[in-house]
Structure to design on (98 residues):
């Protein structure tokens, strides 16, 4: 039951690719929102990329868990993705406040 087919991995990769496109547009909107709020463009750009990275790491953990929970929903795989994702989102909020 812990065997993952190539089809499942392909579907998971396609979902992650679609999410990356959506997150890229969200990053652009977030960056523009910060610039309108008088945040320096370089800081806004950094906050936008941190938002993108955070959302990507969190969604990668979710997609891996959906593809094969028995194999990928372990502490060694999920914890680093969640920690880095959460840290990037916190960093985006802190950098965007400058």
């Amino acid at each position: 039951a812990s065997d993952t087919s190539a089809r499942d991995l392909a579907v998971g990769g396609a979902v992650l690719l679609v999410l990356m496109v959506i997150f890229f547009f969200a990053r652009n909107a977030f960056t523009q929102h910060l610039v309108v709020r008088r945040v320096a463009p370089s800081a806004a750009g950094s906050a936008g990329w941190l938002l993108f990275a955070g959302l990507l790491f969190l969604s990668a953990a979710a997609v891996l868990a959906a593809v094969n929970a028995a194999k990928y929903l372990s502490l060694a795989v999920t914890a680093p993705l969640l920690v880095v994702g959460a840290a990037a989102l916190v960093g985006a909020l802190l950098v965007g406040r400058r």
